[in-house]
Design a protein that fits this description.
Oligomer: homotrimer
CATH topology of chain A: Jelly Rolls
Helix content of chain A: 25-40%
Shape of chain A: elongated
Radius of gyration of chain A: 16 Å
Number of domains of chain A: 1
Strand order of the largest sheet of chain A: 1-8-3-5-6
CATH superfamily of chain A: YjbQ-like
Number of helices of chain A: 3
Largest interface: A-B, 34 and 30 residues
CATH architecture of chain A: Sandwich
Distance between the termini of chain A: 10 Å
Number of strands of chain A: 8
Chain lengths: 135, 135, 135
C-alpha cells in the first residue's frame, strides 16, 4: 500500500505531519507492520525529533544554518540561488527515507517523537512524501 | 514480527548490540528478509560502524562532541540541561531507523560492521529499540 | 528477493548506480513494493542526491572534506592511513541503508533524484550493496 502525501511548506524549517501519518496508518487496516517514508526531493529531508518544545526545533534549524551557511566561497554550484547548494548539503546530512514500525494498529513512535519534513530552501509550496505500509 | 530490545547505556557513547540482533534473527525462522530497527528516542540514535578497533569509536564520539559542543550560546532550548540540545542535534545528524537484509538466515552485515546504539546524553538507563523482521 | 550489486569505485566521491537499480526493479516483476539498499562497509555510504549538475556533487564532496579533514590531531585511530578515520566519520553522518518505494513497476524517485554510492576513502576497487525488493 503506497500513498502520496503532499506537504505544504512556507520556507525553511521543520514542518510536522505526524497526524496525517497516524491517520494513514489507522486507515490501512494493518495491526502490525512497517511504515516507510520517502521524500522525492534533494533539498528537503525527513526527520524524527522532539515534538514538544518548539525551541528545540528552532535551535536545530539555527545550528544547521550556521554549519552550512549560504554564500560559502567553496560553492561552485550557484546558478540556482544562494540557498540551493546549502540545501543539497543539508539533505545529504539528514534522511531521505525513514521506517517506523506499526504495533497494535498504531505508529510506534516514542512519547516525545514527531515526524517532520525539513525544508532546506526558502521555497514555499508543496513537497511530496511517499508512504509505504507493509507487513 | 516485531520485538522490543531494551538496551542499557551508561552515559554517552556507542553501545554495541549486534549479538542480540543476531539472536533475534536466528530465532525468527526467516531465511531471507529484511530486519529494520527503529529507536524510540530523540537524543540517541542507531549506527552501523566498525566493530573491531575501539579507538575508531572513541574518535567518532570525540569528533561529534567537538562539532556539537555543550553550552553553545546559540542554544535557547536549555531547560533540560546542557547535554539536551546537543543530543537532539546529534540525533538529527545520525539515523533513527536502519534496515539490514537477512541472507541465508543471517543478518548480512559486512565483515567489519557492528550495530550500535549511540547515546548522546550523559544519561544512564534503558533505551528502547524496535526490531521489525519481514519478508 | 535480495541481489548483490558490486560497484566499482575509483577513489573518493559519488558514484551513481541508478540505472542498475532501475534494471533490478524492472526485472523483479513487482508492480508495487519497496526497494531497500544496504551498504556492507563502514567507510562508504549511500546517498540520494541531484543527478543533473555534476557541480553540486563536487561541492558536496569538497564541503564534507573540509568538515572532516585528514590529519586532524583529534584522531587516535591512525594505523590504517590518514583517510581511514575521516571515512568512518563521514559514513556515520550519512546513510548505510535507504528505502525507495516502487510504484507502477518503477522506482519512484523524484525528477532530479539519483542514487549514489559515496566512497569516502582514496580506495579503488569494488564495494558491495545489497538490494532487497519486497511487497
Amino acid at each position: 500500500m503506497i500513498d502520496t502525501l503532499s506537504i505544504n511548506v512556507q520556507g525553511q524549517g521543520l514542518h510536522g505531519f505526524t497526524n496525517r501519518l497516524v491517520e494513514l496508518v489507522a486507515g490501512s487496516g494493518f495491526s502490525e507492520g512497517l511504515c516507510t517514508l520517502f521524500i522525492r526531493h534533494t533539498s528537503a529531508s525527513l526527520l524524527i525529533q522532539e515534538d514538544y518544545d518548539p525551541s528545540a526545533r528552532m535551535d536545530l534549524e539555527a545550528w544547521l544554518n550556521r554549519l552550512v551557511p549560504e554564500n560559502d566561497p567553496l560553492y561552485t554550484h550557484t546558478l540556482e540561488g544562494p540557498d540551493d547548494m546549502p540545501a543539497h548539503i543539508k539533505a545529504a546530512l539528514t534522511a531521505s527515507s525513514l521506517s517506523i514500525p506499526i504495533v497494535d494498529a498504531r505508529l510506534a513512535l516514542g512519547t516525545w517523537q514527531g515526524v517532520f519534513l525539513w525544508e532546506h530552501r526558502h521555497h514555499s509550496g508543496a513537497r511530496e512524501v511517499l508512504v509505504h505500509i507493509g507487513k
